[in-house]
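Example record

The entry below shows one chain as it appears in the dataset: sequence first, then structure tokens.
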Amino acid sequence: MLAIILVLLPWLAAAAPQPDPVAAGQAIYRQGVLGDGTPLAGQGAANVTRTGHEAACISCHRRSGFGLAEGPLVVRPITAPDLFGGSAAAPNPRILHQLGQRIRPVYDSQSLARAIRTGVGADGRALDAMMPRYPLGDADMAALQAYLHTLSPGPDPGVDASVIRLATVIQPGVDPHRSQAMLDVLRAFVRDRNAAVRSEPQRRRAGTMRMHRAWRSWVLDVWELRGDPSGWPEQLEAFQRRAPVFALVAGIGTASWQPVHDFSERNQVPCILPLTSLPGEGGGFYTVYFSRGMALEADALALELRRKLAGQRVLQVVRLDDAESMAAARALSTALPGGGIALDQVQLSHAPDASDWARIAQADAAALVLWLRAQDLARLPGEARPVYASGSLLGDADMAAPPAQLRVIYPWELPQSQQLRTRRASDWLHARGLGAAAPRDAIDTLFAVSVTADALAHLMDSYSRDYFVETVEHQLSTTILAPTRPAPSLGPDQRFASKGVYIAAPRALKGGPGAQPALIVP
């Protein structure tokens, strides 16, 4: 028996599943975790040792491998073509000659190992002192190099020699005026952009500049989802199989964006600034949102209630047949406990009638939170207590006689500031006869597609989806247009552009007498 075991041992060892070197290299690159589970360690400038995620390649070279620039520090790309070769595409030998030679030799496994371990580049010169030196063992070195060979190797799906294909997603149940406003803006932008580059094909054949080589026309697909959300994942996969897109731009819905969010993560398809107040949960890299939507409103309100009503009781009213209302109530229920405030709840499956309002009026509460739409608030009786309502749920409704105690949780820039900030976008829309039915949606859609266009232009001909998302992070706060949301900005790996709301009486929001409301950032 012992002889049989000894004979079988080599075979069993060979048959055992071997770790995927690319996956192991990805863990080193992204998480700073070595093959044996211990943290990566690297010695940087001034002999400072960094470990774990702090030492991971992604910290400086980013997920895409295209690097970054921060002040005087420029982190060079380490994508597969940059490290291991691959010449720029050129239509003829003359332009290939004009493109010139590489500024350093390509790396092979030995020279790259030397660079990583000792900081000596392929040309024999020392790398910048900011680049840590990593004493990797042979197995971890091989795994990291295997992953680097897969890093942004070439154009991602949705891009060919002449076209960039984009799509926008429309959930069922959206007000047709809103969805049409979004589509009209997207189609007009794509039409204008494609019409303005009639000479680009000739420049591409004649020029050496990457901005000319990068030229592509845009194609916009419309992905209209149907039926129950449980069927949306397969519909999205079917759309992508039929005609793969490079990215999703804008999009609109009043149900949870989670199915679209999950699709983007599974397929690594960026989704840029959908018009939704119910963003997907669970983190992720590929979807960039305007804000946290109803959760942001609830968290800001929790801060306001703790500041003004500590130790008192609050009643919130929620519609069980309204996904946005329910999401806001859940978020407030999560955010408020522990702040010395008791939270009660009235659940409605219909528009509140006189008996509902009578029950609400008799409730022992120092303030009301009404997660209701404008038509539900139309019959709100006079209240001496503070009444808080969601600006997202009220929409553009202008209540004829709002209660004196009404305070609106307002997720947009104040109207007097917004008029100035969005003037350029409003002029663009007015010139094309667009946006009258849903002005906020039209302005935010124009911002989303403008950020997309700016980011694509900055990619030059490096059509990597990861690099595109990283470029959106930067372009969002530098694009010439502005959205309706306050103070949009993104840092590395942030995915919610606007991080605050206002809470004030309708008159104060419109610039009435008194102090201007302050932005509340939870």
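Notes for this example: The mean pLDDT is 89. DSSP finds 22 helices and 15 strands in the chain.
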